[in-house]
Write a structure and sequence with these properties.
Length: about 375
């Protein structure tokens, strides 16, 4: 099982000091956080993609390319790649290039995003969101899987005998997760292609997460990729920890109350009782995270949001120390002990290259 962090890259005023970082400071902080994630033994760093204030990660592959040179083991991912408004040809090229730069330590998560105005900024119509996601991804798969593509669709100009360069590293495209909070069509899309399904798992109660993941698992089996238990599932979540749970609640409350995502709605207590947000001691985070398995089954990837809502860099790095030293080692052990024998490991470039070679060898026997 893979453990890591994801960031949405918000530039938010610290409510305890009244100061907001500059864009430059926030970008540098995200880079420091990613490198700290590797230092404390996490597996994955994922960045969102946004094109509007107060967010800064408008160019994920630029950031991840830098991190490829600064890390050795960390899987570099997106927590959203906008399949709706990005050109699939550019996605194919950018992430294949990143694959080569990072020696395969790359995957990405397709999503429609949560900002309506982004559609017309890139010449699209939000009412076409689902159709764009379906058509663009179908083309992206062909661009990675086929050396020469001739194609015609509804939303972009046709392609005639087009080859996307560079070709995917070792002939294996980056692994794709399809991220969604509320759209069953995206779970269906992930299942159709045999890709991973990532449920953000921040805003909604466990019953909704269970419903979405179960839909994906059943449809994954329907399309012949394996049993429902063999489907590739990831979850998000947010935690804030201190050694003492009362200290965690007291320190995090002003950040929660003013957060762009959470603030000015239900209370912290209401939110932590009704959603997976966990604010407390490391042991409470361990117990809450282990409970996710009760309603989604065995899964392959758990990412935590650690740097949202104006938390200062020093605090985030302290959180990562707690996560890496006290939480993730226990989670690795406990999830492994509980895991059923037929559940696959989290996909990596090396395992997917080996699987392709084995399949090719089998087909020639």
């Amino acid at each position: 099982m893979q453990f890591g962090i994801f960031t949405v890259g918000d530039v938010t005023t610290d409510p305890t000091t009244g100061r907001a970082p500059s864009e430059h400071e926030r970008i540098k902080a995200m880079l420091a956080i990613a490198q700290k994630a590797e230092e404390v033994g996490l597996d994955v760093f994922a960045t969102g993609e946004h094109h509007n204030p107060p967010f800064v990660p408008s160019s994920p592959t630029t950031m991840l390319g830098y991190l490829a040179a600064r890390t050795e083991k960390l899987i570099l991912s997106t927590s959203t790649t906008l399949i709706t408004t990005n050109d699939p040809v550019k996605i194919a090229e950018d992430f294949a290039m990143l694959q080569h730069v990072a020696d395969g330590r790359v995957d990405l998560m397709m999503g429609r995003g949560n900002t309506g105005p982004v559609y017309p900024w890139f010449g699209k119509d939000i009412r076409d969101g689902i159709d764009l996601a379906i058509e663009n991804y179908a083309l992206l798969r062909r661009l990675w899987d086929e050396p020469v593509v001739t194609w015609k669709g509804k939303f972009r100009t046709p392609l005639q005998s087009f080859t996307s360069t560079p070709r995917p590293l070792d002939g294996v495209a980056p692994f794709v997760w399809h991220g969604s909070i509320r759209s069953p069509e995206i779970a269906e899309q992930a299942a159709y292609y045999g890709d991973g399904f990532f449920h953000n798992h921040i805003f909604w109660p466990a019953s909704h997460t269970k419903q979405m993941v179960n839909l994906y698992r059943q449809r994954y089996a329907h399309y012949g990729h394996g049993t429902p238990e063999q489907a590739i599932v990831g979850l998000g979540g947010q935690v804030f920890m201190r050694k003492n749970s009362q200290d965690a609640v007291r320190e995090f409350r002003p950040y929660f109350d003013n957060a762009p995502v959470y603030g000015h709605g239900p209370s912290l207590e209401e939110f932590t009782s009704q959603t997976p947000l966990t604010v407390g001691s490391p042991q409470e985070v361990i117990e809450r995270t282990l409970s996710f398995r009760e309603y989604v089954g065995d899964y392959q990837r758990q990412l935590f949001l650690m740097d949202h809502a104006g938390l200062p860099l020093k605090t985030v790095l302290e959180q990562l120390d707690l996560l890496g030293e006290e939480v993730v080692p226990v989670l690795r052990k406990e999830f492994a002990n509980k895991r059923a024998a037929n559940v696959p490991d989290a996909p990596t470039h090396a395992t997917r290259v080996a699987a392709k070679a084995a399949a090719s060898e089998g087909s020639t026997e």
